[in-house]
Amino acid sequence: DVKVTQSSRYLVKRTGEKVFLECVQDMDHENMFWYRQDPGLGLRLIYFSYDVKMKEKGDIPEGYSVSREKKERFSLILESASTNQTSMYLCATTAGGSAYGYTFGSGTRLTVV
Amino acid sequence: AQSVTQLDSQVPVFEEAPVELRCNYSSSVSVYLFWYVQYPNQGLQLLLKYLSGSTLVESINGFEAEFNKSQTSFHLRKPSVHISDTAEYFCAVTSTGGGNKLTFGTGTQLKVEL
Q: Which residue among A43, A48, A97 places its CB closest to the CB of B104?
C-alpha cells in the first residue's frame, strides 16, 4: 500500500514565523496535493504538483508556497504564519488519472498563536 | 469546474438503524465520484468510488452508494450502522477527462449512538 507520511501530527507556531510542513510518499507517484481542512468548509485545495519542480495553485494559495525538489517530497511553506492559518493540513498523492482517487497522510494540526 | 453539496453537516443515528448520507454534485462533464471516511485524528480513507458500469457500488464494510445521473446524486447508505461507523464522511468529484483534482464536499459527521 502507498504510504504518505506527514512529519508532524501537531505543531504550534508563533505569528510571523516561517513554517514548513513536510510530506513524503513512498510509491513514486507524480501527483501530490496539499489541502487544508476546516470545520464546515470541508477540504480546500491549496497547491498541487504533477511532477518535480512543477507546482500549480489550487483554490486558496494566498499566504502559502510549495516546494518539490524530489519526486517523493512535497513541502508546504507558510511564509509568515498568521492566526487564520490555524487548521488541519492534509497531504495526498495519486498515481495518475482521476479514477484512482487519493491516498492521504494522517494530517498536521497547526496552531498559530 | 465541479462542485459538491452535502446538505447534512451532522447525522445522529442509533446503532443498528439505517442511515443515508446525501451528496449532490454539479458538473458540465462526465464525472467520477468518491466517498471518503475520516475517523477521529486520522487522515481520509477511500470508502468507495463510482467510475462506470453498475450504478450501485459497495464497500467492504457494508456501505453502498448509488450514482443517479438524472438527479446528480451519489448518496451513501448503510442498512444497519455500528458504533464504529462514527466518523466524518466526505463526498468528492472529479472529471473523467484528465487532471487529478478532487473537489470535496463540506463533510457529514455521522454519530452513532447506543
A: A43
DSSP bridge partners of A57? A47
Given CB atoms, is A107 within the 8 Å cutoff of chain B?
Answer: yes
- Distances from the Cα of B42 to the Cα of A76, A109, B54, B61, angstroms: 19, 11, 31, 18
With beta carbons under 8 A apart, name residues in chain A contacting B23: none
Q: Are A29 and B77 in contact (CB under 8 A)?
A: no
Q: What is the distance, to the nearest Å, from the Cα of residue B55 to the centroid of all Cα atoms in its chain? A: 14
Contacts of A92 in chain B (CB under 8 A): 44
CA distance B82 to A9: 28
The residue among A71, A70, A66, A44 whose CA lies nearest residue A55 is A66
Alpha-carbon torsion (B5, A59, A87, B46), positive or negative: positive
Q: Contact A89/A111 with Cβ under 8 angstroms?
A: no
Give per-residue pLDDT as tens, A40-96: 899 999 999 998 988 999 999 999 999 999 999 999 999 999 999 999 999 999 877
Question: Which of B32, B42, B102 lies closest to A106 in CB terms?
Answer: B42
Locate the DSSP E strands across B3-113: 3-5, 10-14, 19-21, 24-26, 31-38, 44-50, 56-58, 64-68, 73-78, 87-95, 103-104, 108-113
**d(Cα B28, Cα B10) in Å, to the nearest integer?**
29
Q: B104, A96: Cβ pair inside 8 Å?
A: no
pLDDT, tens digit, for every residue of A86-106?
A: 999 999 998 776 677 889 999
